[in-house]
Amino acid sequence: MKKSWLMGCITILIFGLAFILPASAQNATQNIPQTKITLLNVSYDPTRELYQAFNKAFADNWLTKTGNTVEINQSHGGSGKQARAVIDGLEADVVTLALAYDIDSIANLTDLIPKDWQKRLLHNSAPYTSTIVFLVRKGNPKNIKDWDDLAKHGVSVITPNPKTSGGARWNYLAAWGYALKKFGNEENKVKEFVSEIYKNVPVLDSGARGSTTTFVERKIGDVLIAWENEAYLVVNQLGKGEYEIVMPSMSILAEPSVALVDKNVDRHGTREVAKAYLEYLYSEAGQEIAAKNYYRPRLESVMAKYASKFQKVELITIDEVFGGWANAQKTHFADKGTFDQIYQVK
Amino acid sequence: MGARTEPKIIQYLLIFLALAFFSLFIVLPLVCVFHNALAKGWSIYLTTLQDKDAISAMKLTMITALVAVPLNLVFGVVASWAIAKFDFRGKNFLLTLIDLPLSVSPVIAGLIFILLFGAQGLLGPWLMAHNIKIVFAMPAVILVTIFVTFPIVARELIPIMKSQGNEEEEAAITLGASGWKTFWLVSVPNIRWGILYGIILCNARAMGEFGAVSVVSGHIRGLTNTLPLHVEILYNEYQSVAAFAAASILALLAIFTLIAKSIVETVIVRKSI
To answer: Residues 6 or more apart from B60 whose CB is under 8 A from it?
Structure first.
């Protein structure tokens, strides 16, 4: 029948239109000359407050220095998920993620970032650091003091899933590092110890923010293993007087890394401003903002000023104890890694 | 009416159960949304809605619906006309294809577009070379919305058109009307209420879609966040008033949609009698 042939054509036409229309609409908007520079910072979950303050300070600074306005757009999410989005084409000018491994994945899977990115900025490209602490409910009813208390029977521990969350991997490795020291490198006992902790976890959220929400808003669990900055945020802003921070005897030096996404800044013509943006993180003003948002600053002068905020604690590093992120990832979080082994023994 | 044989107690029990279920699962959560949204008073509620990012989220949601709904309407009418009124080879295949978006999880729908248009995807390098942005930008948000709402209008119209049969069209053509004229003057008027109903449902889904949009949006606030994504972001930032305020807009939209839908339904029933 002639009619049916016609119908087929129309249907195909509609399909085609559905694809072409939005695409060309986007093209049209792109041709409008841009009067102000925009940067896209793709970051991980708990840095929302930090970058809100930092972006404003940087934009002001850039305006007085160069006379140009710069607008910084933010995207937040689980660190691994964000890295994946950049790999799939989210056009970040800079990435500020939870751990070097996620930026390594971008460098390994694409040619957006050179493989030696970590050497391009001071301090392993981590302008601020953090550590892992415990957050407990007021009065510390379960008397939680150290990692041993998390492995005890009857204690409910909240931590996100290390498969998807950057923060969770730091948590896991901190516990592992503590056990290594305690049992003098006896692999089986270490595994047993960490496994006891994870047996106490009732919900494994996919990101650090999700875990905090579980602990604070849904009131589940006796202790939250959290980023220091996240714990302070809860104590000072969410539930004044309802929570306490407990610093374990030993924790891990978390180095959230930042990097310029070379291919993207060259496409956007934003290399200069993006580079200045990252360098501003290392400046006195940038370090001050980091410290105010409970990230440990690198600059001695700023650290001295905020010393009362950051308790001194023995910190292990990924490089010393685990031989770098690539190794830690392979041994602990890859398929059939230690996390899979202990989480299945349930 | 006199045919009821159950004892009164069972009747009341059943009514009570239905009402309890209804209030527990629908009314209570809805009240909760508005209660939380207004927890700090009307003025705060209104200020949170005037936030720059909230407004851009509403705008994006509107634009998405404005593009997706008309396109799916045209497609839905044409497709259901073809399927209900004509016989052709591959008809069943077309039917299955139309249903596909309903049977695929929205997350997969989003990933399909990443695999197709993403930087590592099939068309990614070509798009990149021609400076066309699709994923993590507005086009992808609109595309996935079109994808997930694809079957709604057609699904609504096919049964109506099938039940009406071909007699009226055949009569029109015998009397010398062209195919085009027949379509506009005979087929379309017969299904106009069905079309309206389809539009309302399609619009509701287009505005509320979360999963698929979440995968392709890139979550850039002020740029690629739709209203449902904005709600999640605000909630994760512990701004529960703002989150519920944005959620209340979605809830209001849903309620409005339902009211419009029931009005249309009563009209349909009246017309068909």
So the answer is: B138, B141, B224, B225, B226, B227
| Pick from A14, A17, A88: CB nearest B118 | A88
User: Contacts of residue A18 in chain B, CB cutoff 8 Å?
Assistant: 71, 75, 143, 146
Domains and CATH numbers, chain A: 37-126+256-305 (3.40.190.10), 129-254+313-344 (3.40.190.10)
Tell me which residue of A228, A159, A246 sits closest to A194, measured CA to CA.
A159
**Minimal CA separation from B36 to chain A, in Å:** 13
Residues of A in contact with B56 (CB under 8 A): none
Query: Looking at the predicted complex, does its ipTM rise above 0.90?
Result: no
Whole-model pTM: value is: 0.79
The whole-number mean pLDDT for each consecutive block of 10 residues of chain B, a chain of 273 residues, reads 74 92 88 88 88 91 93 91 86 88 89 90 86 89 93 91 86 87 85 87 91 90 91 83 90 85 79 63
How far apart CA A329 and CA A205 sit, in angstroms, is 19
In the DSSP assignment, the letter for residue A345 is -
Identify the CATH number of the domain in which residue B60 sits.
1.10.3720.10
Q: Examine the domain organization and report whether B175 and B49 are in the same domain.
A: yes
